[in-house]
Specification:
alpha+beta; three-stranded antiparallel β-sheet
């Protein structure tokens, strides 16, 4: 994979990449910043929340903070990823501009057109950050055409929505399967087929992302965060968190606040 990273200002990053060995990448993840991913070449299935969208060159995936997402595809692709924090918006844009930018995140996939996507790739490394984000936002707000069709399987979509809303409360796969009138084996099979991971792994990732949000934005103690995120023990929480994030909850709190300039204790 060839990649070019541009750190163009505190609180906003642009990454352009060309991925030759395409596949399912990455696993479901989320973060506490806004993300706009512009497809410049190739095609990808974008898993955003509990829905799946087929994207192609010229499409832009619009992902709000803390929404789980990943992508999948067999062909190589090129894209531009723009990430920015709430703090960056507050410090660099007026109220009307902030409303316009945040309003973009009501949609999930917006067709920009191949020429505009290629042009945005060309200026990604040199454009002044505020002007780049403002131009991109205006293009998205003015883009015509229908949002790309949700391609999620009908059996999976309501289950995914329910999990996202109740992952801190669900007690075992049996209770989840019973709620939808299906067997546990069928639940596990269709979920793994369409997401590439088990139901338990998906719920653990949602819980970890919930915990990340609390680590980044509050000064709660680790044991309280573990409980709020739906883990039954701090020991299991620490083990799962470290496996998924590659660091301890305390290290994640410090790292995130340093990167995105959040206030509070490290």
């Amino acid at each position: 994979m060839k990649s070019m990273d541009y750190e163009i200002s505190d609180g906003i990053y642009i990454t352009s990449e060309t991925v030759e060995d395409a596949g399912s990448f990455p696993a479901f993840h989320s973060h506490n910043v806004y993300e706009i991913y512009i497809m410049v070449a190739g095609e990808r299935d974008m898993f955003i929340g509990s829905s799946v969208y087929r994207t192609a060159a010229g499409d832009a995936a619009v992902i709000p903070p803390h929404m789980p997402h990943r992508s999948r595809g067999e062909m190589s692709y090129t894209g531009v990823c723009v990430e920015f924090s709430d703090r960056y918006l507050n410090e660099n844009f007026g109220e009307a501009e902030q409303r316009m930018i945040r309003g973009l995140f009501r949609r999930r996939v917006v067709p920009l057109g191949e020429k505009e996507a290629a042009r945005l790739l060309g200026i990604a490394g040199t454009a002044e950050p505020r002007k780049y984000l403002l131009e991109l936002s205006k293009l998205l707000s003015e883009a015509g055409g229908a949002e790309r069709t949700d391609t999620a399987e009908s059996d999976l979509s309501p289950i995914g929505c329910y999990i996202q809303e109740h992952y801190t409360e669900i007690k075992g796969l049996g209770s989840l399967a019973d709620r939808f009138g299906i067997s546990k084996s069928y639940l596990c099979r269709i979920f793994k087929k369409h997401t590439g991971m088990t139901v338990t792994e998906y719920m653990n990732r949602l819980k970890v992302q919930h915990a990340l949000k609390l680590l980044q934005e509050t000064d709660m103690r680790i044991n309280e965060i573990s409980s709020r995120a739906g883990f039954e023990s701090v020991i299991y929480f620490n083990r799962v968190f470290r496996r998924i994030e590659g660091m301890t909850p305390k290290e994640a709190r410090r790292s995130s606040r340093e990167k995105w300039n959040f206030k509070g204790e490290g």
